[in-house]
Write a structure and sequence with these properties.
Layout: E1 2-7, E2 12-19, E3 24-31, H1 33-36, H2 44-66, E4 75-81, H3 85-102, E5 106-110, H4 111-123, E6 130-135, E7 140-147, E8 150-156, H5 162-172, H6 179-187, H7 212-222, H8 237-266, E9 270-274, H9 281-294, E10 297-300, H10 303-306, H11 316-321, E11 324-325, E12 347-348
Parallel strand pairs: 1-4, 4-5, 6-9, 9-10
Antiparallel strand pairs: 1-2, 2-3, 6-7, 7-8, 11-12
Helix pairs in contact: 2-3, 5-6, 5-7, 5-8, 6-8, 7-8, 8-9
């Protein structure tokens, strides 16, 4: 069985062809970083228009790389939640058109579940049940995951997501977008203890995150309350490196503390981590050190599967096994579905 998977939740237009044995026959990702760089973040209208221009060429290139034609595709899977409304609609419309033309099943994918499923793909073995940590530009969440399609929310950010904070801090430091890689590069030459930055909720039993105060603390470290815009302050290269390293370490402290607190509260011994921020080398190192110390089975998606991609849409295989397909009136759901046991619109087929 060949499944075409589509991903257009934010600012990457991606497609992949995977099999029921979780073999990846082809994967293509068209990034929009260059389009959004001048704005320091993703502009939703620009993102959706770029998806519209790229979706068919990306599908065509994916099929060619996989060596299959549309007549050899047995189902189409597409992320329909969560994400930017306009971006989601482009991918869903393309998927519906293909399914209608070919009379093949349409499978909905929950983007957040797919991020954790990337760990299953990389491990090439069962990783469930587990605690799932998702850290990206729009999400910083912890889930109890008894199975690949059964997620229970344990905690989430109450304000900025970790990736959003990386982008905003990078802008204050005069570093290019996207902020995650820029801060990691700058932090390599910095002292992570140079600035005493806050770690919100670190000793709070709740499994929630907050990165807004950390972002504000960096702003005050640059310019101080009531002082000029941080962008107008001239920092030395070492000051930038030290601030980047101190900020990165504060984020790592929060993510590590809450992830392992979630394991303790649930009694689970497996941690799966996905999302764009999970590509950060220092965060991966800290998670690995703590997992080794506590004897936890840790799975972090490889960097190529951390940022948005269609390969992780292979979670559609699990939905097909469970007998779930969608009607062609399936809608998009931009916000996070609080009960993530299944994407909205799921239906059993006999």
């Amino acid at each position: 069985m060949n499944i075409l998977t589509l991903e257009t939740t934010c600012d990457e237009t991606a497609a992949a062809v995977v099999t029921e044995r979780l073999e990846v026959r082809a994967s293509v990702v068209a990034s929009q970083d260059a389009l959004h760089r001048r704005f320091g973040g993703v502009v939703p209208e620009i993102a959706s228009r770029a998806h519209l221009e790229r979706i068919l060429p990306v599908i065509d290139e994916t099929l060619r790389k996989a060596g299959v034609g549309l007549d050899q595709i047995d189902a189409v899977a597409v992320a329909n939640t969560p994400g930017l409304a306009g971006s989601l609609l482009v991918g869903l419309s393309a998927a519906k058109a293909l399914c209608l033309a070919r009379q093949i099943p349409l499978v909905a994918v929950n983007h957040l579940q797919a991020h954790i499923y990337a760990c299953r793909l990389a491990a090439d073995r069962e990783v469930f049940p587990c605690v799932g940590l998702i850290v990206s530009g729009g999400h910083s969440s912890l889930y109890r995951c008894p199975g690949p399609l059964d997620f229970e929310l344990l905690g989430a950010t109450i304000d900025d997501a970790a990736g959003e904070a990386f982008d905003k801090v990078a802008a204050m430091l005069g570093l290019p977008y996207p902020g995650g890689p820029s801060i990691e590069r700058a932090a390599a030459g910095g002292n992570p203890r140079a600035y005493a930055l806050p770690r919100a909720f670190l000793r709070d039993p709740r499994l929630d995150f907050s990165f807004s105060g950390l972002k504000t603390a960096v702003r005050y470290a640059i310019a101080g309350p009531g002082r000029p815009d941080p962008a107008q302050v001239r920092l030395t290269g070492q000051q930038i490196a030290d601030l980047a390293a101190s900020f990165q370490e504060a984020v790592a402290d929060c993510l590590v503390a809450k992830a392992f607190a979630a394991l303790e509260q649930t009694g689970m011994r497996t941690l799966c981590v996905g999302g764009g921020v999970a590509a950060n080398g220092r965060i991966r190192q800290r998670l690995g050190e703590e997992a080794q110390r506590l004897g936890v089975d840790l799975h972090i998606a490889p960097p190529r599967l951390c940022t948005d991609n269609a390969v992780m849409g292979a979670i559609a295989v699990e939905r097909l096994k469970a007998g779930c397909v969608e009607e062609l009136d399936l809608d998009v759901f931009p916000g996070v579905v609080r009960s993530a046991s299944q994407p909205v619109g799921a239906k059993k087929f006999s």
